[in-house]
């Protein structure tokens, strides 16, 4: 046996230890990092808690030495009751003025049913809280199951009592609020002047509109189709501009058929020399 063979047979191959050592070292470093990070977070929370306690002590001290709430001035309020505001804010004269959070005041007031937007400002010397309220406006009154609900200009129900102080659009029928804005926008695009002549809108079978113009009791009912009602409305307004059809003695104008306009005359009214209660134009 040669010397090379002897050396080869006597060579012992040791296992590689560095991968295991590397993984162990990496584990220890990760563990140390997590412990250090947790310690930092814990210290930060302790510091934050101490700072908050110090801040509270300073605010309480200053508030008790000349920084008490002296008054609350509210502008823009019309339908919102003072008692509702007091219940929402839980503030009284003499409260620590520095401890009042304008953002919390704003949120508490905007949760009230009639309030749309609020701005809050603290005014020092004197220590007055100035609150400006913008209330929701009523777009229409929705009748459903013999109950009436005011709707705002976004078509949402205002969860509050409402007694109209002037004539207002009445809408009737299930799902009417969800489709009201589309109807009004269509009329506005064709001729906005007809919005003031619209007195009521009935959403029939959750699919189409009957519109009442001029007078809610003695007006003309216009029956619109379920589809392409914008075309029918355009036809109606063109007829009115040409023939003043909405000023005639009619009770119904039926536009549900695409190629016909069927009208029903009021007793004593007439459109043509022919007799009969209704005519197709």
Write the layout of secondary structure elements.
Elements: H1 3-9, H2 18-63, E1 71-75, H3 82-89, H4 102-110, E2 115-123, E3 128-135, E4 140-144, E5 147-151, E6 170-172, H5 176-191, E7 198-204, E8 208-213, E9 220-223, H6 229-243, E10 250-254, E11 262-265, E12 278-280
Parallel strand pairs: 1-3, 4-6, 6-7, 9-10
Antiparallel strand pairs: 2-3, 4-5, 7-8, 8-9, 10-11, 11-12
Structure description:
This protein has 281 residues and is α/β, with parallel strands linked by helices. It folds into three domains: 22-65; 71-135, Ubiquitin-like (UB roll) (Roll), CATH 3.10.20; 140-280, Cell division protein FtsQ/DivIB (Rossmann fold), CATH 3.40.50.11690. 36% of the residues lie in helices and 23% in strands. Helix 5 (176-191) links the parallel strand 6 (170-172) and strand 7. Helix 5 crosses helix 6 (229-243). The termini are far apart. Mean pLDDT is 83; it is low at 272-281.
What CATH architecture of the largest domain do you see? 3-Layer(aba) Sandwich
CATH evolutionary superfamily of the largest domain: Cell division protein FtsQ/DivIB
Structural class: alpha/beta
Query: How many helix segments?
Result: 6
Q: Could you tell me the radius of gyration in angstroms?
A: 38 Å
Binned strand content? 15-25%
* Biggest sheet layout: 9 strands, mixed
Which of globular, elongated, flat, extended, rod-shaped describes the shape? elongated
- Structurally, the number of domains stands at 3
Low-confidence regions: 272-281
Question: The CATH topology of the largest domain is what?
Answer: Rossmann fold
Which CATH top level class of the largest domain fits? Alpha Beta
The beta-strand count equals: 12
Order of helices and strands: HHEHHEEEEEHEEEHEEE
Gap between N and C termini, in Å? 124 Å
Q: Could you report the average pLDDT, rounded to the nearest whole number?
A: 83
Helical residue percent band: 25-40%
Order of strands, widest sheet: 5-4-6-7-8-9-10-11-12
